[in-house]
Amino acid sequence: MRMTEKEPNVLYVRMLGGFSVRWNGKLIAGGSKAGDSQLTCLLQILMHNRETGVTRDRLEELLFGDRDMSNVHHALQSVIYNTKKKLEKAGLPPDNYIIQRKGVFFWTDGIPLQEDATEFERFFHQAEGTGDPEEQLALYQEAVHWYTGEFLPSQTAAVWAAQEARRLKQMFCLCVERAAELLRERQDFFQLEDLGIYAASIDPLSDWETLTMEALVSLGRYDEARKLYDDTAEFYFSEQGLRPSKKMMQQLDRLGDGILHQHAVLDEIQADLTEKGENTPGGYLCSYPIFAGIYRMVERMMERGGQSVYLMLCTVIDGKGNPMREGPMLDEMSRRMGDALRSSIRRGDAMCQYGKGQFLALLVNTTRENCGVVQKRISDRFIVGRQRSRIEYYVKSVFWVPPFEQDEAE
Questions:
Q1: Residue 119: strand, helix, or coil
Q2: Per-residue DSSP letter, 8
Q3: Distance in angstroms (rounded) separating the CA atoms of residues 370 and 185
Q4: Is residue 397 within 8 Å of 371, Cβ to Cβ?
Q5: Per-block average pLDDT, block size 10, for the chain (410 residues)?
Q6: What are residue 255's DSSP bridge partners?
Q7: Which H/E stretch holds residue 184?
Q8: DSSP structural state of residue 323
């Protein structure tokens, strides 16, 4: 966390990645003290908007919503009074913590306060306002490290907090992207690696791993780049059922282009290329990028004719015929479908997992009728007892269109 809390007699307020208020090392509000929701919400609203303040009507709306109250003004005054008492009892120096000026409520100026969200935004705007690349990079990096997580993650139901969370996250993304561009211009791939690692840890499932992979490939650390790709693809599949992004695929292509092996004879190269595990039964299970490469190669081979190839998509569906997209059973159903598919297709056919509950298979040198035979074989091996879940199949022929036919189609 960027907030070091070194200065005495300063109120340190954390709103990114959680909420806490500390005074001289002591927790005043938030954290384990988050039980008093009205006190917590009041502090969050006033401390985050301490420059502009909040009008009475707006504060009442944020605190009480549409609740039916006989005297909402009295309810607000009661919350403010109780908050002041609790803050003084918690150890803050005596002060009129919440003041009112012409119908607008403010957090007091009498107690120095540092809030991480405000500091993050301040560094971002400073970076945007300077024309010196060195200073700009330093300011973007400072801003990035002030952002330690989503704004008030426990308040996602509050509209104002959710809107602010989206705004600050967009700002964080801009910070990372612009810092990355400046680091590319300097060819500082060590710092780019650090930036990607930090961004991915703070904002998971947002594809920041591409920055780290870009840095590793540029630095020639190919084994680490390959492992990062495999780990990231597995993580995205297990968490969201997502396949690797276009950016990750591009970095994988760069990885392949960049690898230069030591001089070797053809026998050694062939031995290294040969699939390990002699006579492995079933279809060839591979990652999506490799499957895509195989598909494109098959398309080219078909220019010579003589083969009939089909692409098949297998999807797990529930008892009502709807695709299973989440739930505790989906991982188990996906695993069983993958096993059934692999054991039902030939060694010369390729397959990969496309997403949660979905597999692709490339069936080479077969017929449409045989595709139906394969589907029945998969279903027989997948269905156990009286289970209601089934597999839905979609099949399309892979065909090559000659150039003159493409011109006519256009």
A1: helix
A2: T
A3: 55
A4: no
A5: 71 94 89 66 93 91 79 89 89 90 91 94 95 94 96 90 95 96 93 94 87 86 81 73 67 58 59 66 83 87 78 90 81 89 92 87 91 94 85 85 43
A6: none
A7: helix 159-186
A8: B
> 3-class secondary structure for 206-226?
CCCHHHHHHHHHHCCCHHHHH
For tokens 């150039």, what's the residue?
403
Mapped onto helix, strand or coil, the DSSP state of residue 318 is: coil
Backbone angles phi, psi at 205, to 5 degrees: 60, 30
Residue 264 per-residue DSSP state: -
The backbone torsions φ and ψ at residue 315, rounded to the nearest 5 degrees and listed phi first, read -130, 130
d(C-alpha 239, C-alpha 205), whole Å: 9
150-175 residue pLDDT tens: 999 988 888 999 999 999 999 999 99
Q: What is the rounded radius of gyration, in angstroms, for the C-alpha atoms of the chain?
A: 29
pLDDT at residue 64, rounded to an integer: 86
pLDDT of residue 54: 93
Q: How far apart are CA 105 and CA 112, in angstroms?
A: 17
The β-bridge partners of 361 are: 312, 351
Please report, as a single letter, which amino acid is at residue 117.
Answer: A
What residues form DSSP beta bridges with 106? 99
Taking CA atoms, 386 is separated from 10, 250, 322, 373, in Å, by 66, 45, 18, 22
- Cα–Cα distances in angstroms (integers) from residue 5 to residues 21, 25, 28, 85, 112, in the given order: 11, 7, 14, 24, 12
* Domains identified in the chain and CATH numbers: 11-115 (1.10.10.10), 117-255 (1.25.40.10), 284-405 (3.30.70.270)
Enter the pTM of the model: 0.66
What totals of helices (H) and strands (E) does the chain contain, helices first? 15, 12
Task: Look at residues 151, 163, 142, 127 and name the one whose alpha carbon lies nearest to residue 3.
Answer: 142
Per-residue model confidence as pLDDT tens digits over 250-307: 766 666 555 544 555 666 667 766 766 656 678 888 888 788 888 988 888 877 766 7
